[in-house]
Amino acid sequence: MMLTDPQDLFLRDLSNIYAAEQLLATRLPALATELENDTAVQILSDHALETEQHIKNLERVFKVLGMKPEPMTSPVVAAILAERDRFVRDTDPSARIRTMFDLDTIAGIEHFEIASYRSLVHKAVVLCEIDCMELLQENLVHEEATLRRVEELSRAFVRESMDPLVV
Ligand SMILES: [Fe+2]
Ligand SMILES: [Fe+2]
Fold this sequence. Notes:
Blueprint: H1 6-33, H2 38-65, H3 75-91, H4 95-126, H5 130-162
Helix pairs in contact: 1-2, 1-4, 2-5, 3-4, 4-5
The protein binds fe (ii) ion (2 copies).
One fe (ii) ion binds next to α4 and α5.
């Protein structure tokens, strides 16, 4: 059936990020235990808790709309995580290299989430779903803050590890 209603597109986008958050809720805590850097562990542990909140916020959005999420998987997040697992399997990286790769993996996921929530917030505003907009905005703020923390740490890691002047 042809999708023609912007409200249906909004529901589909919501269902997609809901599936992504659920997948992340199962993977982030385990990923956090594999990082070799205390700050990275802290960032990911904090964000694993926030991810639980993101799921609750999305469930409140569905409730406000009187709708249920469409059952789906998140191919984007699944692919990013699969690439991470393939990298670890194929290269047997040192703990430091794995942590550098994992920080980039998390940054990639956050970029996807930020793009998704920015679009959803905008759609919620246009559709006059202000309660939904505020819940989605809360998630967006967490994703943006996490990306900033991850990128800052990643840059420090790269400088420390790759600067030829550092012995
Ligand atoms: Fe999230
Ligand atoms: Fe996130």
